[in-house]
Amino acid sequence: MKTKKLSLVVAACNNMGIGVDGKIPWTLRGDMKFFSRLTSGTEEEGKQNAVVMGRKTWFSIPDRFRPLPKRLNVVLSRNLTTPPEGAHHLAGSLEEAVKMLTETTVADTIDKVFIIGGNSVYKDALSHPCCHRVYLTRVYKDFHCDTFFPNMDDTFKLVSDPTIPSEMQEENGIEYKYEVYEKVA
Ligand SMILES: NC(=O)c1ccc[n+]([C@@H]2O[C@H](COP(=O)([O-])OP(=O)(O)OC[C@H]3O[C@@H](n4cnc5c(N)ncnc54)[C@H](OP(=O)(O)O)[C@@H]3O)[C@@H](O)[C@H]2O)c1
């Protein structure tokens, strides 16, 4: 068994809000492309990455974009008994998903594992022993939100990654910036 590092990917506005009424409160095409490139890009040939998400995040993705292409889509639910239509796998907890992605035959087909929300899935992932990085798109604007990114404690340090654009981005009058945090302890 080979352990896999978990990376969280999130976009959050000034109050660390990530969603409202089951949707993301802003439209930033550049950030969507960044998300797609980051979560699809593999280093090991012949493998794909996995994206792990809560049931509500799955259903927040418009039908025509589900499953997220070229990635293994894993949905977490404590109540569903079969994967929602289009999803590749269902797991009853983050730990069950990680076990499936590291200890079963599925593991041989997977390069990286990305945790893509929402709130409680991020919370579990931040405290998971395999948690490695948080890719945070900081959106410098106030939006009304009902879902938030959990607090990152001071074991997460801002790092520079030459593969990630560091300059301020701007779209539709909204400024945003890509940040990478790494868990140091
Ligand atoms: N800005 C961003 O980067 C970003 C990213 C993702 C999502 N969002 C937004 O966030 C909102 C959705 O997030 P959310 O926090 O409300 O919901 P969510 O985490 O996506 O889904 C919650 C559901 O997922 C299942 N679940 C969550 N944690 C689980 C666990 N540890 N084990 C097993 N099942 C688990 C449960 O499903 P059951 O009830 O079926 O048991 C739970 O009711 C939407 O507004 C979406 O647009 C934003």
From TrEMBL:
Gene3D superfamilies: Dihydrofolate Reductase, subunit A (3.40.430.10). Pathway: Cofactor biosynthesis; tetrahydrofolate biosynthesis; 5,6,7,8-tetrahydrofolate from 7,8-dihydrofolate: step 1/1. PROSITE patterns: DHFR_1, DHFR_2. InterPro entries: DHFR, DHFR-like_dom_sf, DHFR_CS, DHFR_dom. Residues 5-183 form the DHFR domain. The keyword Chaperone does not apply. GO terms for biological process: dihydrofolate metabolic process; folic acid metabolic process; one-carbon metabolic process; response to methotrexate; tetrahydrofolate biosynthetic process. GO terms for molecular function: dihydrofolate reductase activity; NADP binding. Its EC number is 1.5.1.3. Keywords: Methotrexate resistance, NADP, One-carbon metabolism, Oxidoreductase. It catalyses: (6S)-5,6,7,8-tetrahydrofolate + NADP(+) = 7,8-dihydrofolate + NADPH + H(+). SUPFAM superfamilies: Dihydrofolate reductase-like. It comes from the Eukaryota. One of its GO terms (cellular component) is mitochondrion. Belongs to the dihydrofolate reductase family. This is Dihydrofolate reductase. It comes from Branchiostoma floridae.
